[in-house]
Amino acid sequence: MDDADLIAACRAGDHHAFAELVGRYRTNAWHVCLQITGNTHDAEDALQDTLTAAWQNLPKFRGDARFNTWLHRIAANAALAVVRRRKNTDSLDDTDGDYGIVLEDPAPRFDEQITTVDAVRRALAQLPEDFRVAIVLAEFASLPYADIAEHQGVTVATVKTRIHRARKQLATLLTPAIDP
């Protein structure tokens, strides 16, 4: 069955069709949540909120965008809501943060990968929210610029600019300081 058939079955109350539909895009939604929140605990909460919101709002899905684009939009919004809630409750003195790491296929130099993943997550967390969402949707959800523009309510040119600036800022944040 294609997405349209599954959506029709979901609207008729078929829970199995919904499970199959979101199962196709769940991994990408998870990566969006993980990259925006920066840790597995918050990403789990965001993904749960995403799936609940998708089920509850499926009757409102108009089909103007592809289902996976719509689901990624919900995932990004849910992850941002979790981040905002966390920022309101985090202590200003807590500088360690909780950066859970999930590596499905660890390379031989596991310790270096942990360091790299942690550095990328910390760098992503330092980006302005609009930049972070744009780069995560482009790089981790593999969404086209047009879908990201629709998600953020901006033009494709603005998305390109945000992604370009995000990449520059990430390069700066991830480049080790060279001592003179």
UniProtKB/TrEMBL annotation:
Task: State the superkingdom.
Answer: Bacteria
Q: Which residues form the RNA polymerase sigma factor 70 region 4 type domain?
A: 119-170
Domain RNA polymerase sigma-70 region per the UniProt entry, residue ranges: 21-88
Q: What are the recorded GO MF terms, alphabetically?
A: DNA binding; sigma factor activity
* Keywords of this entry: DNA-binding, Sigma factor, Transcription, Transcription regulation
Biological process GO terms, please? DNA-templated transcription initiation
The cross-references to InterPro entries, in alphabetical order and at most eight, read: RNA_pol_sigma-70-like, RNA_pol_sigma-70_dom, RNA_pol_sigma70_r2, RNA_pol_sigma70_r4_t2, RNA_pol_sigma_r2, RNA_pol_sigma_r3/r4-like, WH-like_DNA-bd_sf
* Similarity annotation: Belongs to the sigma-70 factor family. ECF subfamily.
* NCBIfam families given in the database record: sigma70-ECF (TIGR02937)
Q: Would you tell me the protein name for this molecule? A: RNA polymerase sigma-70 factor, ECF subfamily
